[in-house]
């Protein structure tokens, strides 16, 4: 397929060319992040449109106004909550269900987002959250497991008292039920995420026997060169389809993860500054995957932008390599929000050295681009020893051979050809 490049729809051609070469750096990452943020705003508006005609329309409209207020008063908080990885899959599912005649999840998600944003911005407000499951997820903060409640129960969330949120169960036109007192008056789970933590208590007599599972903050580096992400093991939409580890990391395991991240980040800053700059903008959260047969694995979900799933890291260089690998997938997923890189699946399959099974064109292109990042990582590590030299040689050859095979596909769009050409040129320029 030939032809001129289609309009970038917000992605400048120079940015696409920089990304095609394998990098792009902070400038390109910020362009991609801005596009992701704009798409989230469209999803939010879609949630409101789906919810307004229903019985919880007033609650959804209040949530919309609270989010608008937080965006004005605390734009960083707004961006962190609305841009949280799991919001993408959750909103897309809610909108699909609304199109199929069930809009119940739309107001629930919108109200949960507003509650989280108000909590983190310390905005005094009251929101009503329609419950659709026994778990209340507050994206970027954590998940509450609630006690049994009658169908149709609503939660009133009261924020604005520091890091405290008070919840009271109500039902339309009924007296709120009185929970059974089983725990102390308040429960303080401690720090959850940057700017989030606090007390979770019942507004009515007694307290609830529920479980609060917060996300955990992981930080590495300092000041403008540092990064803070969260370790999320509870949000049900954090990585759709991923082989998620069932058991939550122990405190010791999480502490080890944090220590390895500090060492990995120091390595990236020292020798892989472009990867570090991109990750600082685009990486928002980790979640833990099962390790099949004891082997390390990792993945990046298509619509949960900023999330990386990985098996528990073994050492700092391996974690740094995983970040270099998955940030490539993250960038390419963001490019796909602006450009189709391939046409409809024509049934052709391509053999790639990193998979035993032949792959469709788009997954194969994803793999080439990701392994360009892997080869680039080990290229800069070559002086560290035989392991690095062998890894570089292996992954450069693998990515280059696969790129040459994909170049023959008639299903690449002009943008897909541009990206593959830039990737191939970079790989060919590196010494075997």
Describe the structure.
By secondary structure, the chain is of the alpha/beta class. It folds into two domains: 21-28 and 216-429, no CATH class; 39-214, no CATH class. Helices cover 46% and strands 13% of the residues. It is built from twelve helices and twelve strands. It has helices at residues 13-20, 25-51, 57-73, 75-82, 87-99, 105-121, 251-271, 273-282, 316-336, 361-380, 386-406, 414-429; strands at residues 125-130, 135-138, 142-145, 154-161, 164-170, 200-202, 211-214, 216-220, 227-231, 285-288, 298-299, 307-310. A five-stranded mixed beta sheet has the order 8-9-10-12-11. A four-stranded mixed beta sheet has the order 1-4-5-6. Helix 2 (25-51) packs antiparallel against helix 3 (57-73) and helix 10 runs parallel beside helix 12 (414-429). The longest helix is centred in the N-terminal third of the chain and has 27 residues, at 25-51. It is globular and about 65 Å long. The model is unreliable at 1-8 and 173-209 (pLDDT under 50).
In short:
With 432 residues, the protein is α/β, with parallel strands linked by helices. The protein has twelve helices and twelve strands. It folds into two domains: 21-28 and 216-429, no CATH class; 39-214, no CATH class.
Helix-strand layout with pairing:
Elements: H1 13-20, H2 25-51, H3 57-73, H4 75-82, H5 87-99, H6 105-121, E1 125-130, E2 135-138, E3 142-145, E4 154-161, E5 164-170, E6 200-202, E7 211-214, E8 216-220, E9 227-231, H7 251-271, H8 273-282, E10 285-288, E11 298-299, E12 307-310, H9 316-336, H10 361-380, H11 386-406, H12 414-429
Parallel strand pairs: 5-6, 9-10, 10-12
Antiparallel strand pairs: 1-4, 2-3, 3-7, 4-5, 8-9, 11-12
């Amino acid at each position: 397929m030939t032809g001129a490049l289609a309009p970038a729809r917000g992605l400048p051609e120079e940015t696409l060319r920089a990304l095609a070469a394998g990098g792009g750096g902070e400038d390109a990452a910020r362009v991609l992040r801005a596009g992701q943020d704009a798409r989230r705003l469209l999803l939010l508006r879609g949630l409101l449109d789906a919810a307004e005609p229903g019985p919880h329309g007033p609650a959804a409209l209040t949530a919309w106004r609270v989010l608008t207020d937080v965006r004005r008063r605390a734009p960083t908080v707004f961006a962190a909550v609305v841009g949280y990885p799991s919001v993408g899959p959750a909103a897309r599912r809610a909108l699909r269900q609304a199109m199929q005649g069930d809009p119940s999840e739309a107001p629930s998600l919108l109200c949960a987002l507003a509650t989280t944003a108000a909590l983190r911005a310390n905005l005094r407000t009251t929101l009503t959250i329609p419950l659709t499951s026994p778990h209340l997820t507050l994206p970027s903060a954590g998940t509450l497991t609630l006690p049994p409640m009658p169908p149709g129960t609503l939660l009133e969330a009261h924020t604005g008292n520091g890091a405290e949120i008070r919840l009271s169960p109500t039902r339309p036109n009924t007296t709120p039920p009185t929970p059974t007192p089983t725990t102390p008056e308040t429960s303080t789970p401690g720090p959850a995420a940057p700017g989030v933590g606090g007390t979770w208590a019942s507004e009515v007599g007694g307290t609830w026997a529920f479980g609060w599972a917060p996300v955990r903050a992981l930080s590495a580096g300092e000041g403008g060169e540092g990064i803070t992400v969260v370790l999320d093991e509870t949000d049900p939409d954090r990585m759709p389809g991923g082989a998620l580890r069932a058991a939550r990391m122990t405190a010791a395991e999480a502490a080890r993860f944090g220590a390895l991240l500090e060492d990995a980040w120091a390595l990236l800053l020292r020798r892989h500054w472009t990867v570090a700059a991109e990750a600082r903008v685009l990486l928002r959260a980790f979640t833990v995957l099962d390790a099949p047969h004891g082997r390390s694995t990792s993945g990046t979900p298509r619509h949960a932008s900023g999330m990386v799933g990985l098996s528990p890291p073994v050492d700092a260089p391996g974690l740094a390599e995983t970040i270099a690998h998955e940030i490539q997938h993250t960038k390419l997923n963001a490019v796909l929000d602006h450009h189709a890189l391939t046409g409809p699946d024509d049934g052709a399959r391509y053999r790639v050295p990193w998979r035993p099974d032949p792959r469709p064109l788009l997954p194969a292109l994803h793999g080439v681009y990701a392994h360009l990042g892997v080869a680039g990582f080990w290229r800069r590590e070559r002086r560290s020893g035989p392991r690095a030299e062998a890894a570089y040689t292996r992954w450069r050859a693998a990515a280059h051979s696969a790129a040459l095979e994909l170049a023959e596909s008639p299903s690449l769009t002009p943008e897909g050809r541009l990206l593959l050409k830039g990737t191939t040129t970079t790989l060919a320029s590196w010494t075997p």
